[in-house]
Amino acid sequence: MQDAQKRHWSRLVAVFTVLAMVVAACGADDEGGGSGGEGDAVLDEYDFSGVTISVGSKDFDEQLFLGHMTREAFEYMGATVEDNIDLGGTVPAREALLGGDIDTYMEYNGTGYAVHLAITEPIPTDPDELTSIVRERDLEENDIHWLSRAPFNNTYGFVSSPDLTEENGGAFDLQGMADYLEANPDTTVCMESEYPNRDDGLILFEEGTGYTVPESQQTILDTGLIYTETRDNNCDFGEVFTTDGRIPELGLTLVEDPGIHILYNISMNLRDDMYQENPEAFDAVAEALLSPLTQERMTELNALISGQGQEPATVARDYLIEEGLIEG
Questions:
Q1: Span 49-63, mean pLDDT?
Q2: Reported pTM
Q3: What does the longest C-alpha to C-alpha distance in the chain come to?
Q4: Candidates 3.40.190.120, 3.20.20.70, 3.30.70.60, 3.50.50.60; CATH matching 156-254
Q5: Bigger pLDDT: 13 or 53?
Q6: What tens digit of pLDDT does each residue of 79-100 get?
Q7: What integer best gives the mean pLDDT of the chain?
């Protein structure tokens, strides 16, 4: 009888041990992904359950990536996300934010300074100073927070054609480009229609280098054509956005800029009424999302979309997983 009881209790202990292991495993599986638990991913620490947030973006590849990155992150943390990605250009995105149609989107500090706040003083050349001014003014005047700041700077720039780069023995800088243009009147500079007339465009190149580009050297093209025409050596220099993925994809070489063009780093723009629901978490999440986005990283991500045709939403999710921000 005693042996039978011992066998009975041994079986019960074994069963309870297995059950305990299953429960523990299930508990571990439930952590993260909007639970606010202590999982392995960075964003597992934050719980936005019960929060409804509307996420927007502008309409070009980099902004589509940033919008989907933000949407994916908040969904992962348990928020109910209203998808308003791909609103159009700067004006409709900003109006949607101010009007409450969206709660957040990613904006560029140079745009905030010169366009949204219309500050007329010379724009700072230090990204921290620039962002600090925009952050303080926009919060005071419009109840808009500028959270964190990505390292990358998507500003105007130029690329040189493969033949001209080889002839030069490597990359030009802007002064070297100006000197070459002056010494070679037949040289062509391909630009989109806005750049020669913008306050943050050609005038900054001319003031910074001392060379005025004559109309005889200017060729106006659609933005996409500038990249391929410069690759094909039909443009000696092409005006571009410096984090555009087509630059590495097409083997183009950026002209080095010592700081002539305005800075365009991004921050998360967030309405104050949304921010006040969880200030510390919003600050931390914005920093986690943006701090890995160096110039090289952002250009690589853009290349996957603009150069290889991958979907922005797919690239955004892969980025979050690769950076350990969410679990796959």
A1: 96
A2: 0.81
A3: 108
A4: 3.40.190.120
A5: 53
A6: 999 999 999 989 999 999 999 9
A7: 89
156-254 and 42-153+264-322 share a CATH fold: yes
CATH 3.90.1170.50, applies to 42-153+264-322:
no
Calculate ∠ Cα 206-207-209, nearest 5°.
Answer: 65
Contact 82, 104 (CB under 8 A): no
- Give the up-direction half-sphere exposure of residue 113: CA atoms within 13 A in the CB hemisphere: 26
Q: How far is CA 180 from CA 105, 168, 176, 293, in A?
A: 41, 10, 6, 33
Confidence (pLDDT) at 31: 41
Could you state, in order of their start, the residue ranges of all structural domains in the chain? 42-153+264-322, 156-254
Distance CA(243)–CA(154), nearest Å, equals 5
SS3 content of the chain, % helix, strand, coil (to 5): 50, 15, 35
Asked if 73 and 286 count as a contact pair (C-beta separation under 8 A), the reply is: no
Nearest one of 251, 157, 159, 171 to 202, comparing CA atoms: 157
